Amino acid sequence: MRLGKLVSPHLPNAVVAAAIFTLYNTYTGDIADPVKIGIEFIFYVTVIFIGFVVITPILNKAFSSVTT
Protein backbone atom coordinates (compact mmCIF):
# COMPACT_ATOMS: atom_id res chain seq x y z
CA MET A 1 0.00 0.00 0.00
CA ARG A 2 1.34 3.42 -0.90
CA LEU A 3 2.20 5.74 1.96
CA GLY A 4 0.13 8.60 0.56
CA LYS A 5 -3.03 6.50 0.42
CA LEU A 6 -2.37 5.31 3.95
CA VAL A 7 -1.70 8.73 5.46
CA SER A 8 -4.27 10.92 3.73
CA PRO A 9 -7.49 9.53 5.21
CA HIS A 10 -6.22 9.00 8.76
CA LEU A 11 -3.81 11.82 9.61
CA PRO A 12 -6.38 14.66 9.65
CA ASN A 13 -8.62 12.66 11.99
CA ALA A 14 -5.69 11.89 14.26
CA VAL A 15 -4.67 15.56 14.40
CA VAL A 16 -8.20 16.68 15.29
CA ALA A 17 -8.55 14.01 17.98
CA ALA A 18 -5.13 14.86 19.42
CA ALA A 19 -6.01 18.56 19.49
CA ILE A 20 -9.20 17.78 21.42
CA PHE A 21 -7.33 15.64 23.97
CA THR A 22 -4.58 18.26 24.36
CA LEU A 23 -7.04 21.13 24.75
CA TYR A 24 -9.00 19.16 27.33
CA ASN A 25 -5.86 18.38 29.33
CA THR A 26 -4.81 22.03 29.16
CA TYR A 27 -8.29 23.22 30.19
CA THR A 28 -8.48 20.87 33.18
CA GLY A 29 -5.04 21.94 34.32
CA ASP A 30 -3.30 18.60 33.83
CA ILE A 31 -0.60 20.23 31.71
CA ALA A 32 0.60 23.84 31.69
CA ASP A 33 4.15 23.78 30.35
CA PRO A 34 4.31 24.62 26.61
CA VAL A 35 6.96 21.96 25.99
CA LYS A 36 4.84 19.30 27.68
CA ILE A 37 1.81 20.43 25.68
CA GLY A 38 3.77 19.99 22.44
CA ILE A 39 5.15 16.61 23.46
CA GLU A 40 1.72 15.30 24.47
CA PHE A 41 0.18 16.59 21.23
CA ILE A 42 2.79 14.79 19.11
CA PHE A 43 2.38 11.67 21.24
CA TYR A 44 -1.42 11.73 20.84
CA VAL A 45 -1.17 12.23 17.06
CA THR A 46 1.25 9.32 16.74
CA VAL A 47 -0.72 6.90 18.89
CA ILE A 48 -4.11 7.76 17.38
CA PHE A 49 -2.72 7.59 13.83
CA ILE A 50 -1.20 4.17 14.47
CA GLY A 51 -4.50 3.06 15.97
CA PHE A 52 -6.41 4.16 12.88
CA VAL A 53 -3.91 2.46 10.55
CA VAL A 54 -4.05 -0.82 12.48
CA ILE A 55 -7.77 -0.94 13.26
CA THR A 56 -9.18 0.18 9.88
CA PRO A 57 -7.99 -2.87 7.89
CA ILE A 58 -9.21 -5.18 10.65
CA LEU A 59 -12.65 -3.58 10.65
CA ASN A 60 -12.82 -3.54 6.86
CA LYS A 61 -12.01 -7.25 6.75
CA ALA A 62 -14.49 -8.07 9.52
CA PHE A 63 -17.36 -6.16 7.96
CA SER A 64 -16.64 -7.30 4.41
CA SER A 65 -16.89 -10.94 5.48
CA VAL A 66 -20.37 -10.42 6.98
CA THR A 67 -23.08 -11.49 4.58
CA THR A 68 -26.61 -10.22 4.76
Describe the structure.
The protein has 68 residues and is mostly helical. It has one domain. Helices cover 82% and strands 0% of the residues. It is built from 2 helices and no strands. It has helices spanning 3-27, 34-64. Helix 1 (3-27) crosses helix 2 (34-64). It is elongated and about 45 Å long. The model has no long low-confidence stretch (mean pLDDT 85).
Helical content band: over 70%
Distance between the termini: 29 Å
The counted number of beta strands is: 0
Describe the main β-sheet briefly: none
Structural class: mainly alpha
Number of domains: 1
Question: In what range is the share of β-strand residues?
Answer: under 5%
Query: What is the count of DSSP helices, taking H or I runs of 4+ residues?
Result: 2
